[in-house]
Structure prediction request, 1097 residues.
Amino acid sequence: MPKRPDITTVLVIGSGPIVIGQAAEFDYSGTQACRVLRDEGVRVVLVNSNPATIMTDPGFADATYIEPITPEVIEQIIVAEKPDAILPTLGGQTALNAAMALHDQGILAKYDVELIGASFEAILRGEDRQQFKDIVLAAGADVAQSRIATSVEGAREYAAELGYPMVIRPSFTMGGAGSGFAYTEDDLIRMVSDGLQQSPTHEVLLEESILGWKEYELELMRDHADNVVVVCSIENVDPVGVHTGDSITVAPALTLTDREYQHLRDIGIDIIRRVGVDTGGCNIQFAVDPKSGRVIVIEMNPRVSRSSALASKATGFPIAKIAAKLALGYRLDEIPNDITRVTPASFEPTLDYIVVKVPRFAFEKFPVADRTLTTTMKSVGEAMALGRNFSQALNKALRSLEQRGSSFHWARQGEDKDTLLERASTPTDGRIVTVQQALRQGASVDEVYRATGIDPWFVDQIALINEVALAVASAPELTDDVLLLAKEHGLSDAQVGQLRGMDEQAVRELRHEREIRPVFKTVDTCAGEFPAYTPYHYSSYDHSSEVTRSERDKIIILGSGPNRIGQGIEFDYSCVHAAFALRDTGVETIMVNCNPETVSTDYDTSDRLYFEPLTLEDVLEVIHQESQSGTVKGVLVQLGGQTPLGLAQGLTDAGVPILGTSPEAIDRAEERGAFAAILDAAGLQAPKNGTAHTREGALEVADDIGYPVLVRPSFVLGGRAMEIIYDPDNMSDYFDRIGEFAIVSESAPLLVDRFLDDAIEIDVDALYDGHRLYIGGVMEHIEEAGIHSGDSACTLPPVTLGRDIIDQVRAATRKLAEGIGVHGLINVQFAIAAGVLYVLEANPRASRTVPFVSKALGIPLARAAALVMNGATVDQLVSDGVLPETDGSQVPAWHPVSVKEAVLPFKRFRTPEGHIVDSILGPEMRSTGEVMGIDRTFPLAFAKSQDAAYGGLPRSGTVFVSVADRDKRGAILPVARLRELGYDIWATEGTAEVLSRYGVSARVVAKHTDVRGDDEASIVDLIADGQVDIIINTPRGRSARADGYEIRTATVAADKALFTTIGQLGAAVVSLEERPEVPHVKSLQAYQADRDAQPNG
Prediction:
């Protein structure tokens, strides 16, 4: 059946901010869907609160609403845009839950809007635990014994039947939020209480334990004519007990017999039919008992899932694109395969290579968090690699993580076999390397299997890598055969160098001398049965290359690698814009990246895609391949964050031209002495500072500067290991804490700055072409100085900065761009303290705020930057209409205000004792994503940002206040206003005393540590009991980590509004008064029309 003629406008619901369990995979899916729908002539309306994704750029939809994803907001968008249908299956659990709420509240029926992609009934059958269990049994498959609990008491009764350990799974959550294994009644009570709160339907499933079973996934698609395809099978290397997002996974499944695979396939097809997914995709997870072969179905996602992006990139089969076409009424056999152009989408993909995905964790950001992996997802990103065999793909994937200690190594091992096996028995982020080391120390494959539950086939493959390493190390000389053996199994030049006692560069030179280089194969969906027309490549040490020659001028764009805290999809956004902008100028664009979640690794984003690790070795091989034909004009390293910047010098040394800002200029901004000279020459001030390479040196510098000081290592992103230090003891502790990461050395000094208390921080994104400076935007942080810019809320345009300050900022930014030698983007952070403008740091690259600036002011900064780095001038871009005539330093009074707010993952991380980690903000970045509010005024925009980030403030209830002495004066007015608005005020004794002197009465409640009577509850008890709605708790200087910890963790656990800075509190209180009953919504396109209608455009 061709496209349905009755669907002319579709509302696509996005996935909101990047959070653990729901990351960039859904932006990739949603972006694909928007492009497909528009190609089909459908008018696309999009709602998504996330400014960081390219999906919310105005070019991808006809009407783009960056608004909170709530039923109230979506209703107003329906009123304004009158869509025929809503597509909720490409925006993760957020979109699915929003669609369910629209149905339950009667909004879909009220406006006669249809759900496409999956019906309400199908969603319910797939998501509701009991209904899905009944379907699985009806399909002749098995499920784990289970009970559904709606209370803690009920759960305790069921536990007596099921026995411990048991699995706890809340309904309708994402990334396994709130799930895990309960081993004791205490675990059960804590996890069920938490799970009931996290589940929108307030129910949890209690299941018999299948810990240690093998886990598989199938990605399926079905159309309305009942055609079904299995797109991909995926196998977890870790057994059941580790969330699939945290496990190393392989595609296709490698340890199933054909009979076992066909059995899973039959079950999967039967289930998708019974659930009723008939216009889209779904993901089904299975567990297989390795002893008996018993198969049980774990769960199903009746939507495009996290694994769908991996399956799409692994096979070249664009699941989201095809799902969007199926939703419009097409059949699978009517949709052509982009890659072969002759086979339809009803042909199941076939792989003649192995794909390995490895998760990227951020435990270094949460040092006290338990690193044990469970069914609650904790990873923040992932890398993927393709190879001709498992060992090659695994080694490539591990080095793609860019984390110290993540790859296999053969250094001296201090631990014995038994110690390593004991450590490997607990799943953690580094377990695969522990397994490799245990095998090195003499453990057998069977011993490792018994300790870990990892299938013996995978363990044997790791043992094979060790055997290859031994052969390389013990060979009398490094012959061609020995080098080829190492490379066929994925060993890097650095690993070969370690085994042979050679420098990495020496290995590379020897390899090139002997012309031992990789060839590049093509991902073609059909194992070579039909020709492939899509240039999507991976490296292998094989015989023939499949890259088509091209005589065009080429620019190579280096992506940002796996998502991590501090380097997320904001950088992918800039890379994608560069690919689009340069392609429009006639240049051939080549993308190199290893992140399966992102738009940059879609096969039609650039002219050619290489799915390769972002290491110097791998990137140089891609450049060599491309230089065989045409002209490589240069490489862009400015857009992908710290990862490509770190390669700039190595590429320059290898004779590769770097476009835009030179590596020497990048070093001038990073190296403290050179940067100080630039500041002196420009007459600019920085806080008093120094550098140190050792603990003793740091103590000496801090003593000279005076405490408190801000310390940070060189060449890091996301404020890695950045802290405010209050005294010498604190400084010594700091060196103990960062010791294992080895990020301070002779070549990477520690930077020590005087900390500016009570300063206002300002962020500037600008473009400089060597002659003209063009300001993208001047952002004012809402929190006081000391909070990382990635975690701080900020406003654009600034709301309290005068024209004189903005003029100073503009002049200072120009001097810095000139002094550093910037040619492209620059981000500068300033602070104003006591009326003096200080320069905190300058980064000559794309920043994480580039997408926010672009959407807030309608300035395509990333696109312009790519063109400037390719030789265009700012004047040309203004005259061509690429950039507005007036830059972002001059925002008229009528212009809407945008507020960016961070989304934090504290709830995902618990200490080994089960307590949530402290939620205090500081100079090291901890947020995983961000949202944006845009409206006529700052209070309205701020209110929207809070609604989008965590649901917003309740309009009534109880407010608890406990603030540090230095914050008491600032807290009085906001708290007094809350009292006037009708909130009940509770406070600790000291804070209540100060409030009473200002006429604000407050009920005194006991601290957690106060001595109190038997029946007197502490504030922690009251928060846990749901009696407090808003918590204001600012840390007390040097004891910030200890003081208030219980209050903040109880607040995060109870999912209540928490303010840890007075700046944010003040903004929130103002927004409360302005918040309308019916939300005001307006698309980015409508805001742009307002700009265009102004006399200066």
Q: What stands out?
A: Confidence is low (pLDDT under 50) at residues 1038-1043. The longest helix spans residues 456-474. The two ends are 46 Å apart (CA to CA).
